[in-house]
Amino acid sequence: MPAPLIAVYPGSFDPPTNGHLDLIARGSRLVGQLIVAVLENTQKQPLFTVAERVEMLKEATASFTNVEVDSFAGLLVDYAAHRQAGVILRGIRAISDYEIELQMALLNRRMRPHLETIFLMASEEHSFLSSRMVKEIATLAGDVSSFVPPAVSKRLHAKLGSSPCKPPQK
Ligand code: PNS
Fold first, then answer.
1. Is the pTM of this model over 0.90?
2. Choosing a second label site near 59 at 20 to 30 A (CA), which of 35, 51, 67, 139?
3. How far apart are the first and last CA of the chain?
């Protein structure tokens, strides 16, 4: 019998959104173990520290028995090899994601030919979501409660010093 598949789902997760969580839920049903890996990126200026992002993801994925949250630095392919993962999991929302994802998948394959990238299409209701837009909306005191888990929404508003506007009454 083949060994259970280990997959790495890498990303910035600054912050994790309901789109990420949907992908984690669906991905975790396809593999034996899913490692959600937060990139320690020195180039981007993140809103949340790596430790905060790991904590938020751990809280949000606590009910999944085969999901682990970790962080990594350096090349993704090296981290995947270190964790004995055979698969990289990524989500694609719109056609605009495709070009960069294709480039990354092909470069990763050139570096590690046996490491496969598997793409899941974002669910329809999350296909417009991005961490960047969620941060922008929260910065402008918009309500992000339908885009991120409640604990993330709380942390966003606490970090930004904003409180969400109430949705308009009909
Ligand atoms: O959530 P993001 O920002 O779209 O995730 C991008 C991520 C983390 C998947 C990508 O930047 C990455 O893999 N970085 C690690 C460094 C690396 O391996 N770079 C070469 C990729 S071809």
1. yes
2. 139
3. 59
